[in-house]
Amino acid sequence: MLLHFGADELxxxxxxxEWKAHFGDSLWMNRRDPSQANIFSLxxxxxxxxxxxxxxxxxxxxxxxxxxxxxxxxxxxxxxxxLVNEIHVDALIVSDMNLLIRxxxxxxxxxxxxxxxxxxxxxxxxxxxxxLGVRRIILPRQLKLSEIRHLISKANPEMEFEVFAIxxxxxxxxxxNRPCSLCCFGHFRDWGIRQGCQVFRVCRIYPVSGAA
Length: 212
Prior knowledge:
- This protein has 212 residues and is α/β, with parallel strands linked by helices.
- It is 35% helix and 13% strand.
- It has eight helices and six strands.
- It has helices spanning 17-23, 42-54, 70-87, 97-106, 123-131, 145-153, 183-186, 191-194, and strands at residues 9-13, 58-63, 91-94, 111-114, 134-138, 160-162.
- The longest helix is centred in the middle third of the chain and has 18 residues, at 70-87.
């Protein structure tokens, strides 16, 4: 139906039985509940991709969990090889830094899109992600229109941008004694807990060369 009404891009998630057997129910392959919002087999992904390509539409696959444990990266690399070289999905939506770096080194024939969870808020992060071969930035929901315009003005003309146009708001809005803010950053230093925020996120902190 989406293709019938003119959609020229589709995005979808994958959650395979093999992933569940290896990593259980606590580690999702993407940011959506595997039991309700995913495709469950490579064959079905292939069917979707073939149908989309028949209608000149693209298929973007989400691998946008914020943090993949090291033991899962090898499995993902093998899976990505099949998705790209056999099924021919058009793009991978990624946020985990280790996976982004690995993909940049493998130079696969697939476009890499940065998930909004990659938190590209300024021109410095934009340049960094471009250096990893990212072709599209899905902007964080917290950005204002003026900030989006400024960020795009600093970008290479070849970089693509995508924004969410939904009435979803910020996940922190409405929590007790909390203004709407980017509280996931605060969890790095327990700031969110002191402010009464109980939305916990798995985080990884990277050292930055030359940082104070």
